[in-house]
Amino acid sequence: MDFSYTEDQTILLDGFKRFLESDIRPIADQYRDKFIPKDKARDIQKSLIPFGIVNGFLPENDGGLGLDQKSYGLLMHELARVSPDICITTQIFGITSKLIAASPEHLKQRYIGDVLTCEKFASVALSEPDGGSDLASCKLKARKEGNHFIINGEKTWNSSGGYSDFLFLLARCIDGDQDQGLGLFLVDREMGYETHDLEKTALNSQSTAQVFFTDVKVPESHMVVAPPNAMKSMMKTLAMSRPIVTMMALGIAQAALDEALSFAKDRKQFGGPIAGKQMIQDKLATMATKIEAGKLMALKALDAIDRNDSTQIPSAMAKWYGTELACEVVYDAVQIHGASGIIREYLVEYLHRAVRVFPFTEGTTEIQKLMIGRYLTGISAF
Ligand SMILES: Cc1cc2nc3c(=O)[nH]c(=O)nc-3n(C[C@H](O)[C@H](O)[C@H](O)COP(=O)(O)OP(=O)(O)OC[C@H]3O[C@@H](n4cnc5c(N)ncnc54)[C@H](O)[C@@H]3O)c2cc1C
Question: Which domain holds residue 306?
Answer without folding.
Answer: 231-377
